[in-house]
Amino acid sequence: MDPEPxxxxxxxxxxxxIAGRKLKPKxxxxxxxxxxxxxxxxxEEWTLSRAEVHAAVAYYYDHQEExxxxxxxxIEQATRNGAxxxxxxxxxxxxxxxxxxxx
Length: 103
What we know:
By secondary structure, the protein is mainly α. It has helices spanning 25-33, 39-46, 50-62, 64-80, 86-101, and strands at residues 9-12, 15-18.
């Protein structure tokens, strides 16, 4: 008999998380999809199993269009509210990603 599947993604208050963690799979999936981090780098950075990372990446790809649309709407809303310009936001994200790539 095959073992029962492990659910690595859980939904809490309408938001997806790695099960038992306050870590959003959309973030990890996006790092991987953009080529910013490898599976192994994500595993090491957040102390996750390979299965947890693959589940996060699968979740991201299963919902990519919706997640990216929501992300863009949030950026535009923040820009309209004067919180930050899109260029400033992009610069912050790029700096954050560059820091992840540094040894």
